[in-house]
Specification:
Strand order of the largest sheet: 10-9-11-8-7-12-13
Shape: globular
Strand content: 15-25%
Helix content: 40-55%
Largest sheet: 7 strands, parallel
Length: 428
């Protein structure tokens, strides 16, 4: 498809977005609910199509991480259906009262969701855009083509049934180049890339319209001198229980030097026994070598097999997306803040402390879009407030930080309000 044809294609989605504002919030909600019910009814067909994708992935040499993201299970499909119903019944962001008279929320228009793996997430993204009267262009990789096809067929059937514009949710024709789609400035309003950090970075560099880069992994946890190691371990392990995407997984733990005692050894052993590979800074490596020279200590020496040195400085700024944790030792809270601001992805960092002064200092100085203090940062796409999260049944597509674009702070949750913009109305 040449660029002129692609422009015509994007224009169709743009035109549909203009028509969507004429449909009521109730009508949009009914459509999303119908899509959810249809997915539930066709669960077996979807899983069969997904099996074909998984078999094709082996021929395509798809990385194991992405292969896991492609895979659908009955539980993941049920979770998707529940999320769609939550979107359908959520209050309409376009009609909720805004904080100041004279302002109102309006749709963005046309949104492109570019993803690798996660075929079910494309449906959730499209439903969220539909909820706020925006059209969606879905562009996935070859690794999930069969699954995406059946999802799109389900959506198109319901669009026709409820008399919505047929180009409300569309997929570019085969052979369309992503880079050409990303430069459709005339009709495309926002691009959301979702996948591995390298994938998101590549898309973000090519796009010439507004982009909302999602973030995954490379989250930091700092255990302050007044903190609690057991609480830190609980938060760390909980952060890795997101399924299937480890969005807020803590991959680096910063420890104040005061924790370098014999009591730290069983804590490190517990992380290793939980299946994590431990890597350490120079100070941590020196501590490990010293602590196991004590003859009175009964724990199995960890040596090079349990704590490995961090290979290079770049390692602190990379997302691992596996069961690896890097340990950094600092001499002060200020050093911890500086380190987190320099190397964290900036979307979901954690502080464990029993000091109000420390928590206030970190709240003011850490450049993460979301800072968790003494609570789990586990990512939940649809939360009803369990386990200490009080998101009031909030539906979250992902997490974002515009740190790479020069803005150090940005609302981390990509929710329904994020997919709208603000219009000011001035009367005379």
């Amino acid at each position: 498809m040449d660029n002129a044809d692609l422009t015509t294609f994007v224009h169709r989605a743009y035109t549909s977005a203009a028509e969507l504002v004429r449909f009521s919030a109730k009508q949009r909600g009914l459509l999303i609910g119908a899509v959810a019910d249809s997915i539930r009814k066709q669960k077996n067909q979807i899983l069969e199509a997904n099996t074909l994708d998984l078999e094709s992935c082996r021929d395509l040499a798809v990385p194991e991480l992405v292969l896991e993201w492609v895979k659908l299970t009955p539980e993941r499909l049920n979770s998707t259906v529940d999320c769609l119903h939550a979107i359908a019944s959520a209050p309409d962001p376009l009609t909720t009262v805004f904080y100041q008279e004279g302002f109102r929320r309006i749709p963005l228009g046309t949104v492109a969701f570019i993803h690798e793996g996660f075929p079910q997430l494309a449906v959730i993204a499209a439903a969220m855009c539909l909820k706020v009267a925006s059209s969606t262009i879905i562009k996935g990789g070859n690794e999930c083509s069969h699954t995406q096809k059946i999802f799109v067929e389900i959506i198109r059937e319901q669009l026709d049934k409820y008399n919505f514009p047929e180009n409300t949710i569309i997929v570019p024709p085969p052979g369309s180049a992503i880079k050409d789609l990303l430069t459709q400035e005339r009709y495309l309003r926002l691009v959301i890339p979702y996948g591995r950090p390298s994938f998101v970075q590549q898309i973000s560099k090519q796009v010439t319209v507004s982009v909302l880069p999602t973030a995954m992994g490379n989250c930091y946890l700092y255990v302050a001198p007044s903190g609690d190691l057991e609480q830190a371990k609980t938060i760390f392990l909980e952060s890795h229980r997101s399924d299937p995407d480890p969005v807020n997984a803590v991959e680096k733990i910063i420890l104040h030097r005061s924790w370098l005692t014999k009591e730290l050894v069983p804590w490190l052993e517990s992380l290793r026994n939980a299946g994590f590979t431990l890597k350490g800074c120079d100070v941590m490596m020196a501590y490990a070598r010293e602590i196991w020279e004590w003859d009175s200590y009964s724990f199995t020496p960890m040596g090079n097999t349990t704590i490995q040195p961090v290979p290079n400085e770049n390692f602190w700024g990379q997302a691992y997306l596996n069961k690896t944790v890097a340990l950094k030792v600092v001499d002060s809270n200020e050093e911890a803040i500086t380190w987190m601001n320099q190397y964290s992805s900036g979307h979901a960092d954690v502080l464990v402390t029993d000091s109000l002064q420390e928590s206030q200092r970190f709240s003011q100085s850490v450049n993460s879009s979301t800072l968790y203090i003494n609570t789990s940062n586990r990512f939940r796409r649809y939360s009803t407030g369990e386990n200490g999260l009080h998101l009031n049944s909030r539906i979250i597509l992902g997490m974002s930080s515009l740190k790479t674009r020069g803005a150090s702070r940005f609302p981390g949750f990509i929710d329904l309000h994020t997919l709208t913009t603000i219009k000011q109305i001035i009367s005379g």
